[in-house]
Design brief:
The protein is an all-alpha fold and 116 residues long. Helices cover 68% and strands 0% of the residues. It is built from four helices and no strands. Helix 1 (2-20) runs antiparallel to helix 2 and helix 2 (25-46) packs antiparallel against helix 3.
Length: 116
C-alpha cells in the first residue's frame, strides 16, 4: 500500500513540476494545485497509515493511548495545508483573471512583452 502511495506522490510531483514549467498561466495554477496535493499526500503517507484507530481516550480512562493509533499531528497539518492551499488558489485565480483582462493573453511570453 505504501509503495502505491509513494508512486502516486512521485507522479503528482512530476506532473506538477511539468505543468508549472509550461507557458500557460492556467497550467501554472493547475500545477500549483497538484503540488499542494502531492505535499499533503506525502505528509499523510509518511505519518503512517492506521485504519479504524482514532487517537481518542475513552472517558474515565488513564491519559495514555494504548495500542496502535492514528497520528493526529499529521492530520492537523494536512487540514491546515488544505485551507492555506485553497486560499493561495483563490488568490492566484483572481490574479490571473486580472492579468488576462489587462493583457488579453494567457501565454507567459506575451505577458513578459507588456512589461515596461
Amino acid at each position: 500500500m505504501s509503495t502505491l502511495l509513494a508512486t502516486a506522490v512521485g507522479v503528482l510531483y512530476a506532473t506538477a513540476i511539468y505543468l508549472i514549467l509550461r507557458r500557460s498561466i492556467v497550467k501554472l495554477v493547475i500545477g500549483l494545485v497538484l503540488l499542494s496535493n502531492a505535499a499533503n499526500l506525502l505528509i499523510f503517507t509518511s505519518s503512517g497509515l492506521t485504519r479504524y484507530a482514532p487517537p481518542l481516550i475513552p472517558e474515565g480512562a488513564d491519559m495514555v493511548l494504548n495500542g496502535v493509533v492514528a497520528d493526529p499531528l499529521a492530520q492537523a497539518l494536512i487540514l491546515t495545508a488544505i485551507v492555506i492551499g485553497f486560499g493561495v488558489l483563490a488568490f492566484a485565480v483572481v490574479l490571473i483573471h486580472r492579468a488576462y483582462e489587462v493583457v488579453k493573453a494567457d501565454d507567459m511570453d506575451q505577458m513578459k512583452d507588456t512589461d515596461t
